[in-house]
Amino acid sequence: MLKKTFNKIYDTDIGYSFFNSKIAVISTTILFIILLCSVFAGVVSPYNPFDPASVSLMDAFTPPSWSEGGSSSFILGTDQQGRDMFSTIIYGSRISLIVGFASILFAMILGVFLGVTAGYIGGKYEIVVMRITDVQLTIPSILMALLVNGIAKSFVSQSMHSDMAIYVLIFAIGISEWPQFARVSRASTLVEKNKEYVSASRIIGLSNILIMFKHILPNILRPLLVIATIGLALAIITESTLSFLGVGVPPTTPSLGTLIRFGNSFLFSGEWWITFFPAIFLIVLALSINLLGDWMRDALNPKLKIR
Hints:
By secondary structure, the protein is an all-alpha fold. It starts with a helix and ends in an 8-residue tail after the last helix.
């Protein structure tokens, strides 16, 4: 059964391209392992960094197990609070992935809706949407995220902001990434709406909503999926950057950005592992997603010969 399913997948153009691309297979494998570990962090990680009972300040600044003074109980050492680095990286990757996936999903929904409707409806509505898109594209994502985070802080109390930090972060990153989806979906919609199947849909009396989101949208998903994949890596890096700057998740939450931020304070005092391992993990995660996105860009391009 599995062999039959594998053969069916392999016989497709996408499957053939994937299994014959070492970069795609390796990056997908690494990404799958990271996703699996982050989802089942409670099972994979030896310690729970959120549980005060499993953390002892006496274990703080323990070097990796292979270094002098290291302990076999802490493979990658511990941080300044005595938390196991391996466990905090796994839990931190889960937070970074949640923020990344949620923010890109939000950006994609908002951008695709505005782009498809602007391309199909046209007129003044299209002009307004595209001018807003052009203006926002001139503002760097980090600056937009900082602006949204600052506005949120001014309207809610500090304790409430800490509770809502992840949601504010998702909104801040998502609202800065939607223009890319809007521009691509609008350009693709302009091409698709003049094709015969759209004219036939109008003739038989289908509503504009059905035409846009049931007929046009499925035909423009390929470039949007590529943008979403590459945008996921950028969203994760943005989350880590904001957390490193101190405006992301609360300091008590072990995300990759906060780990690098606190580890940076001890980098020149000899405790290099606190910032080194989270930084390497972040690089591997972002690189795997980018390589997978590059493969998808080529594999989903109908103009390129796959075989």
